[in-house]
Amino acid sequence: MRNEYPFVIGTSGHIDHGKTALVRALTGVDCDRLAEEKERGMTIELGFAPLELPSGLTVSIIDVPGHERFIRQMVAGAAGIDAVMLVVAADDGVMPQTREHLAILSLLGIENGLTVINKTDLVDEEMLELAAEDVRNLISGTFLEDKPVMKVSAVTGAGIAELKNELMKMTENAVPRDRKGPFFMPVDRAFHVSGFGTTVTGTAIKGEVREGDEVEILPQGVFSKVRSLQVHGESVERASAGQRVAANLAGVPLDGVKRGDVVAAKGRFTSSNCINVSVRALPDAKPIKHWQRMRLHVGTSDSVARLSLIDRTVLQPGESAEAQLITETPAAAHIGAHFILRNYSPLVTTAGGVVLSASGERPKNKYAQKALSDYLKRLENDAPLKERIAAIADYKGEIPAQEAAALNEATLPELMRALSPAEARGDIFIVREGDAVILSKSRFAFLEQKLSDILSSFHAEHPERMGMPAEECAKALAISDIKYAKGLLSLFDRHGAISYKDERARLAGFEPFNEEEFAAAVESVRNSALKAGCSMPTIEEAKNAAGISDETMQRVISSLREKKEIVLLNGGFICIKEVEMYFRKKLTEITGDLTMASIRDATGSSRKYMLPMLEYLDSIGVTRRVGDKRIIIKR
């Protein structure tokens, strides 16, 4: 068994500069496996080989095509590498594809590697020095500038041992990939194995996978199980980030998975037609217009996408910006994945960048564009999970915790642990009743103030009530989920501005008056007005008779008028409904003319009370004054 170490080295460089021969000299493996490759003498597809280092560790080498027609394969191979060997032939020197490959590697975020000047057996010392000078000019200002430049011959073996030693040092000094987190592997090859079924290969980018694990094939969203695993042809129980992996999948037909797909931990990643990114144009590229149609290379996939610029209409050479990739077919990516953009025609590499969020939504107006731009800025520079959650909460205002976890490739427990300190500080709020919902500080304050205003009006209209029922609060706040509404009210209560008890909300400090006492006051005023009959009491007289305050009397009058049990007449007299009906009945019993005298005799009242009553009856169309008399219009 090999002593496998999770580290992938990729070759890169112009066609016919000896990359495949160099891999063969290092590993003994011929990566030109296709008949067409043998016939044409050029690498078309990706080739893979184990490299045993002098230390005894075995790492992986990916041999990628150098021809400009096979840049798609080159990007697919480079997507999963930890370091690069940039190969330049001593007899040719730096060529166009050498420059494009180096630009692609820089855009893909590769930071480790070395340069190899191959075919030293074909040149003299002077030509070799010219080639070395050419290489130094090429790598100046790039990630390879301070890395070793090795001179070798893949044919004679000169310098191969020294190159192996440098590769060993590079491997030992490199920071290994993080094996934590969910498994993610772009598929670069799928094939059928007789008796076993479909097998896929790829470079594991994140996490680890074990035999028997459930996985998801994206973007299709098809679930499967890992039957068996191999690393460099040897069976293993588990494989992890940084290793070349072959996985035999259960229940998946060969046409159910292809190159460009992703095999990932079940339910942890998403596919989308809208990807939030940070994009950077190459310094020598032509300006890229908003909504320009381009070829997108992410992972091992090659698709067509529109570049939607958020805060500008043109991306100038060398500029960086937040943007969205609107793909014509769903694409699967992960947070932090690097991508390449090439012009749709002609096929020239012009830009690249990093995925900030694998699933997004297009802004509908300028305000939404500004909010999206601010949100994406906060996701740059590999923001930790707690910062990402805070950013999306501020962007959305409120978001279901499960959705926030999915957008950030985390489990719900991971998300809750990350948010715990911010929640304790009051920088973020979580409603846990029902399906948990995260609220930003500003959204929480907005809802709290809105409810406070609603309750203030409610108390003014209903001072006798203990508070607004939870269902009414939910309706007023336009919340359809009553569990969430009640959880939010409980959160407001803990925050202190609003009191929530017995499923009723009221402003903190509000004390409703005693309903029994209020009912007694209403009944007292009513009885006082009823007992007085047609000699109606004034508001002041009724108040004094009931022994209540001005404030309570106003509430009593408001309550009785709302129930249409009393009317207020000119002079401040209280006329209860029974007295009004009695007065109207007596009018109908009078024979002859309706004069003040006849009305006084019929009702036993006086002019002081009769005149306000008759004026009221005139106003509602029951009677009409004609000279000194009245006639009945409505009986």
Q: What does it look like?
A:
Helix content is 36%, strand content 30%. The strands form nine sheets. Strands 2-3-1-4-5-6 form a six-stranded mixed β-sheet, with helices on both faces. It is of the alpha+beta class and 635 residues long. Helix 14 (515-532) packs across helix 15.
Question: Short summary of the structure?
Answer:
With 635 residues, the protein is an alpha+beta fold.
Search tags:
six-stranded antiparallel β-barrel; single chain; Elongation Factor Tu (Ef-tu), domain 3; rod-shaped; 635 residues; 19 helices; six-stranded mixed sheet; alpha+beta; 5 domains; Rossmann fold
Assign an overall shape.
rod-shaped
CATH topology of the largest domain: Rossmann fold
Spatial ordering of strands, largest sheet: 2-3-1-4-5-6
Based on CA atoms alone, the radius of gyration comes out at 41 Å
Structural class: alpha+beta
Query: Mean pLDDT, as a whole number?
Result: 89
Distance between the termini: 110 Å
Helix content: 25-40%
Low-confidence stretches: 32-45, 66-70
Strand coverage percent:
25-35%
Number of individual domains: 5
Sheet with most strands = 6 strands, mixed
Number of strands: 33
CATH superfamily of the largest domain: P-loop containing nucleotide triphosphate hydrolases
CATH C-level name of the largest domain: Alpha Beta
> Helix tally?
19
CATH architectural arrangement of the largest domain: 3-Layer(aba) Sandwich
